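Input sequence (238 aa), recorded before submission:
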Amino acid sequence: MEAQEQPLNQERETRSKQEPEKKRKKSNGTKNEKFKWWQTLLILILTLVISVGACYYVSQKYFWSKYDNNRLAEQLDSAKAVADAKPNDPKSHVNLGYAYFLNGDNDEAITQYKMAMDLDKNYFDAYFNLGLVYNKENRLNDSVKMAQKATEISPKDYKGFLLKGMSYRKLKMYKDAIEALNEANKLMPANTDIIYEVGRVAEDQGDKKNAEQIYKDALSYDPLYKPALEGLERVAKK
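Predicted structure, token format:
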């Protein structure tokens, strides 16, 4: 599904520029922090129009994939066979770990990802995938460590920064989360996963209005993007 180019939301940017200097100076620390990340969001929205082809790699492959049980079992059996045939190939262990992950067996997934790391200390996919499992299990410090390693190995791959932003958000380190997501956005503009995570930061900070708008921005690129639809439902109930 291709993204459709949308007009920029100029109204919010204009209001920010016209805000009296005195009022900005009187703002407390919390408001300043929110303003800083909202500035980052404006940069993010500006870059969205640069790219018309949104990438859904993370959401489709890792977070919200839909498989029936039969396909999951077949995928696991196939991945096991490949790993048995290629025991020294880190990719085969990452694929097997992912198959375990989809089947809900996080312990085996972790084992396979660590085996891949033992085979190749600089294998990006192993660190990234292991970080995703840690993030899902709320082992957030471990998730940040894996994300940091992933960004060191491949600083031009947006997924490591996205994972870092997700983990920082859960740790309530919102400034760090936005900085990481901004880096991800520079590498992969028009990515709905990144937009959604910025919305989650706004939502977690209690900024219902901006969270709602950000989720709508994500849906303007993919009207069927389930996480943003669920985000709108959440903020509507708050």
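Checked by second reader. The chain has a mean pLDDT of 81.
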